[in-house]
Amino acid sequence: MKIEFFAIAAVLLIAGCASNNQDTRQTPRYVSLADSQVFALEAAPMRHEINGAQLDMYAYNGQIPGPTIKAARGSTIYINFTNKLGEDTTIHWHGIRLDNMNDGTIDVQAPVKPGESFMYKIILPDYGVYWYHPHIREDRQQELGLYGNIIVDGGFGPADDELAIILDDIKVTNGKIDSFYDFSRFSLMGRFGNHILANGQTGFKTDVKKGLTRLYLTNAANARPFNFSIKGRELRIVGGDSGRYEKEFTADSVVISPGERYIVEVFFENTGSFDMMNIHPGSMQSIGRINVVENDNQIDAPPGSSFEDFERMKSYNSSPPDFEFVLTMQANGMGHEGHGTTMRSRPESIEWEDDMGMMNSISTSKNTRWIIRDKAGRENEEIVNKAGVGDVKKIRIFNDPGSMHPMQHPMHLHGQRFIILSENNKTNDNFVWKDTVLVPTGATTDILVNFTNPGKWMFHCHIAEHLEAGMTTTFEVSE
Ligand SMILES: [Cu+2]
Predict the structure, then answer these.
(1) Measuring CA to CA, which residue among 444, 421, 420, 423 is closest to residue 434?
(2) Domain that holds residue 436
(3) Looking at the predicted structure, is the pLDDT value of residue 301 above 90?
């Protein structure tokens, strides 16, 4: 105990040496942290302008998003977190296989009270783009601006420029953020915003240098899935949540559900302006604009190759599932109980917008219950899921299309990583390590988890309002 205290004290002493490499662009600013370095992070209320309105929001270190932290794979960083909010909070380090007590859920840590601090120790075993956000009342605290990226650097080769973009939306009416209750609202579909944000702004603009740009994309919205594209550009998808794809591939757009990340490379052979768009059936929204500027030192970047070895995982392809879950819901007091009818006449596999505003706005965590149900009929936190370090286990997730409100669910597993084996029996032939998987309405998705990290880890829907309405279970992983 004593030794650990002195180790942390020593680390604190060198905290002042942190090199805050401020990026010259508008946003984001990168903070590069060396091994064992400490970084001070503070959550506090802040006034923030969105689309001309001054809004009362929350921010990490006075900025939305919070600082983009960069560190090397294999390093350990310390985040000295202080809560200057008027309410309890914690920070969850989404996707990072760190020690359980630093995961930021209330299963493993006491809430950080107003005025208090907590030292998070974060080990970074995997390349990729991760993010941090609260894990208490995510539906409110994250919506108010508490989110930021951690990029585990290297492994992706040289680029002329790179850019972390956090996608989000916010619901503003008459110049004010739509109110929050003491419990969660918009429980049916989640809280969809009416302004699209990139790095906390509408009309986001940034410069990148001519040549190859690497984009780190994160969806921090409470509920909205994005289909990200850049007008006139092909996207080269090189990485997912936690590392490289087996085989990189090109696409016109990429679907990113809440909690997910993608690493995308785009080649700009000329200067000019390029619009980033969210494209889905019936609608197209501007995400922002990339302005490509001259570059005197353009690199010649060859396509990268995967450094991940998935061979071991592939041998489990045909084994039966170890865990089977159905995703469904129940509503009370909304006039629909007991009729067995779906609220939506034509369920689609992904809901891109809140197309039933009234019903959604009267649904709350008190009258709506979202459910993960196992084969024995147990639900959510009643379920005891056990695994051991070193286990490879198949989880089958079926998203009930006959529930009262079928819709997609981005399912997030803390502290471990998995690959997507198949969706609707269609075998996935291009693996990437993931921690969040989008399960469309009616789909059966098989994932294969490589349990490597002991502790109590949440498995939940990353639509913040679905989580608040109960949609979570726990994996207990023994050493
Ligand atoms: Cu959900």
Answers:
(1) 420
(2) 313-478
(3) no
